[in-house]
């Protein structure tokens, strides 16, 4: 994907941001710190395998788009309708279409949601080992 295509995805303000692997990855990468930026005010979010630090300014710029994508997950993930579901089921959207086949992309969406306070894990990390696939459940607030 070219830089111009990436910028076009990011600049879609008037439309709901469609949940795709490409859109998640572009926003995720844009929210990370660049090499020359100071990281004192980073927003940390704990993922499945890694903890990420995000640039608060760019995270705020993408907040609505991130939330748009989280709301496209199945109703079982939404607080008001399902109350949370396993990370393993987050590869499908609310219409039953697989939007990604990579756990790393799902992790990017989840940590972005945690960083903007629109997603959270349902149980503490110490309990994850007892869950199916040893993967956490999370909910979209």
Question: Which properties best describe this structure?
Answer:
141 residues, two-stranded antiparallel sheet, globular
Layout of helices and strands:
Blueprint: H1 3-10, H2 21-31, E1 43-46, E2 51-54, H3 56-70, E3 85-86, H4 103-115, E4 119-121, E5 137-140
Antiparallel strand pairs: 1-2, 3-5, 4-5
Helix pairs in contact: 2-3, 2-4, 3-4
Class per helix and strand makeup: alpha+beta
Distance between the termini: 31 Å
* Anisotropy-based shape: globular
The neighbouring-strand order within the major sheet is 3-5-4
By DSSP (H or I, 4+ residues per run), the number of helices equals 4
Total count of strands: 5
Quick check: average pLDDT? 92
Please describe what this structure looks like.
This protein is 33% helix and 12% strand. α3 (56-70) crosses α4 (103-115). With 141 residues, the chain is an alpha+beta fold. The protein contains four helices and five strands. 31% of the residues are buried. The radius of gyration is 15 Å and the shape is globular.
Give a concise summary:
With 141 residues, the protein is of the alpha+beta class. The protein contains four helices and five strands.
